Amino acid sequence: MDGGAGGGRGAGRGPDAPPALGALLGYRVYARRWLFLLVLSLLNCSNAALWLSFAPVADIIAHHFVLSTEQINWLSLIYLVVSIPSGVVAIWVLDSVGLRWATITCAWLNFAGSTFRALPSLAIKIEDPFAFLMGGQSLCALVQTMVIFSPAKLAALWFPEHQRVTANMIGTMSNSLGILMANLLSPTLVKKEKDIPWMLGIYIIPAGLACLLATACLWDSVPPSPPSAGAARCTSERFLEGLKLLLHNRAYVTLAVCFGGGIGIFSGFLALLEQVLCVKGYSKEFAGLCGALFIVFGVLGALVLSLYVDQTKQFTEAVKIGYCLTSVVCVAFALVSQLQGQTLALVTICSLLGLFGLSVVPIAMELAVECSFPVSEGAAAGLVVVLGQAAGALVVVLLTALSVRRAEPSTSTCQDGQGPLDWKAHLVVTSPPLHPCGSPGRDVTPCTPAAHLAVTSPPLHPCGSPGRDVTPSAPLRLTWS
């Protein structure tokens, strides 16, 4: 669905002008855009790996540093808490100092945090290792929001129209690869307590490499010549004015709430997956496999879907279909996860959940940029990410609080020594108020009263709902009837 003529950020939105015409108009692409994307992707991957590096080996870390399980959980949760206020600041920084200096600053903060948290594992005696671990994680958390939404701005400034979604996908999905790396690398490196310093040192390497490349290889925030007509005509509102426009943009708010909530739910899904499955007798290794398949199929789906959308420009169709299919799979997970011995079904469901849900992340991020013109790319994508981080923190805290301990014997494989958790109470509470593929204003019955992940079912379609005309043009004009 190619856009028609018109001005705006994505002017044209169809295939680029022929090379000869583009050169005549002064449009040019630079090979170093791929280097910029590589640095940003490496930084994103490193930051995500640092986020969850403690979670897969929480029991060994807790015993080594004499910490409680709750303290170890806070080493991951601090990312979501810190990134909420820092995300708003990051939006302003990205639009004020430019993409280059913002990336370099983030790279140094990420490197400093990775080094700071490794200090308690050295030979020197530290009275309070938790303070150093939390301090290092907090420094890294300051970086997360910016590196997640920076690919959208990089794609808009440096890449031609037919490569923007693909570039956004590469930068965004590198965060998922970092999560996958943490889930695979930490258990592999840490078998005993003596391996912990080795693990902490290994995680410094990609952070240091990203810092070195960002400092030495990034020269400009914007290219000398714009890559497309849309980039040439791109002008942004001031920070506060831009936020006001976003909050009054009904289509954008709908997308931000749905997609931001989805980001938070997926964060909660990865954080609580092992705790939910172990109650029914599934091992930690199996839970790790389900999480890995979720990410792998999500990255593969994002690659295929991004290439497709880059050529067809069917943004809204791709996101709507992805949301509906994700909702169905979420309900399936809510039901099957309450049964024992369903390994094949759970593996399939988690794979499909990543394929349908995680694959729309770069598409929705690009759509947020498109339907918010003339607001800057950083503000448009950043506000969505901030909402996602807030939702993630809320999901982890709320759903954990709603679970209760069971005293009766069970087949649980949970090894916290406090008895298995019963998740049924919060399954009922999180029952969806609307059908996953329903629309606002319809009186519908929740899909299932035991929908653990039915909270992930988006109550509204992004940028519209069934029966509403959502037609992208140039720029994407989202009309409401």
From TrEMBL:
The signal sequence is none
Compartments where located: Membrane
- Membrane: present as a keyword of the record? yes
> Mind listing the UniProt keywords for this protein, alphabetically?
Membrane, Transmembrane, Transmembrane helix
One example GO MF annotation? transmembrane transporter activity
- Transmembrane region positions? 34-62, 74-93, 139-159, 165-186, 198-219, 251-273, 285-308, 320-337, 344-365, 380-402
Q: Which Pfam families match?
A: MFS_1
- Per the record, which residues fall in region Disordered? 458-481
The membrane topology of this protein is:
Multi-pass membrane protein
CDD domains from the UniProt entry:
MFS_MFSD7
What GO cellular-component annotations does this UniProt entry give? Answer: membrane
Q: What is this protein called?
A: Solute carrier family 49 member 3
Q: Which organism is it from?
A: Canis lupus familiaris
Organism lineage string = Eukaryota, Metazoa, Chordata, Craniata, Vertebrata
Name of the encoding gene: SLC49A3
